[in-house]
Design brief:
By secondary structure, the protein is an all-alpha fold. It is 79% helix and 0% strand. Keywords: Cell membrane, Heme biosynthesis, Membrane, Transferase, Transmembrane, Transmembrane helix.
């Protein structure tokens, strides 16, 4: 007869996670942005790539982004459980165990890097591996919990997918791909600090040193304005450097003015969260429209060539 307590140890734990829960671990909204910016980097890159290889590369990059999301959710389960925006994620909600999320993320990370190396080249695979490492280890495990510069430095991870895709086509990293990196990198702070302004209570409860929590509302609004002033001309660089056309220049110019107007509105109205909410929503549209314009122009030029 088994000793009491041993029977429980012998019973295997059955996962209650659904397919939808594992898909949620991949952060599909973030993944969709990664795929879109990577596709733009791939199409903007000079030189042909076979459609099947291009599709395989995009899938590998998407899976790598999803793996990063799963590992982020594994490590941040304690923080996510405190914040209203994230408490229903699969790990803090108890639908996926931490071990399942960790194994899922590690396996997908390895497969994505290996697949990209096999289908394209080892520079692209190395850049993807570095992106995953940077997001999980440098940002999630270190920057996010320990420094107010978490979003600024950590934004490099979200800015690398178009560089990875560009390298998948060309086997190189050039000024053109680095401009795409710079655009996303400089966009990230005002985008996330706008969110942090009206979610600062959540970050404070979770102990995350976001700028509004550490430096206050006034400094956050000032930093949003500074980074937006720097972002607007960077958004124009593809046109100024000659690898985007006049339509992009017009869109980037008007979009940048819109970002500046909202940043000034945030600065002028301390205590009013309306401008911050509008900036958060508009900034997503701004980045999408700029990359859509780059993608559209590049596709048209390939058809006409």
């Amino acid at each position: 007869m088994p000793i009491q307590g041993e029977a429980d140890d012998a019973v295997p734990v059955i996962s209650i996670a659904s397919v939808g829960d594992f898909l949620a671990l991949l952060k599909p909204r973030v993944m969709s942005l990664v795929v879109f910016t990577a596709l733009t980097g791939m199409v903007v890159a000079p030189g042909p790539i076979h459609p099947v290889i291009g599709l395989a590369a995009l899938i590998a990059i998407a899976v790598g982004a999803g793996a990063s999301g799963a590992l982020n959710m594994w490590y941040d389960a304690d923080i996510d459980a405190v914040m209203s925006r994230t408490r229903n994620r699969p790990v803090p909600a108890g639908r996926v165990s931490p071990g399942e999320a960790l194994a899922f993320g590690i396996i997908l990370s390895g497969l994505s890097v290996l697949a990209l190396g096999v289908f394209t080249n080892f520079l692209a695979a190395g850049l993807l591996a570095f992106t995953i490492f940077f997001y999980v280890v440098v940002y999630t495990m270190w920057l996010k919990r320990w420094t107010v510069q978490n979003i600024v430095i950590g934004g490099a991870a979200g800015a690398l997918p178009p560089v990875v895709a560009y390298a998948a086509v060309t086997g190189t990293v050039t000024v053109e791909s680095l401009v795409l990196f710079a655009l996303i990198f400089m966009w990230t702070p005002p985008h996330f600090w706008a969110l942090a302004l009206f979610k600062s209570g959540d970050y404070e409860k979770a102990g995350v040193p976001m700028l509004p929590v550490v430096a206050g509302d006034h400094e956050t609004r000032r930093q949003i304005l500074i980074y937006t002033v720097l972002l607007a001309p960077i958004g124009m660089l593809p046109w100024l450097l000659g690898y985007a056309h006049w339509s992009y220049g017009v869109v980037a110019g008007l979009g940048g003015l819109g970002m500046l107007w909202l940043a000034i509105d945030i600065w002028r109205k301390p205590g009013d969260m309306g401008p911050a909410k509008r900036m958060f929503g508009y900034s997503i549209l701004y980045l999408f429209v700029l990359f859509a314009c780059l993608l559209g122009e590049a596709l048209v030029m390939r058809v006409l060539a």
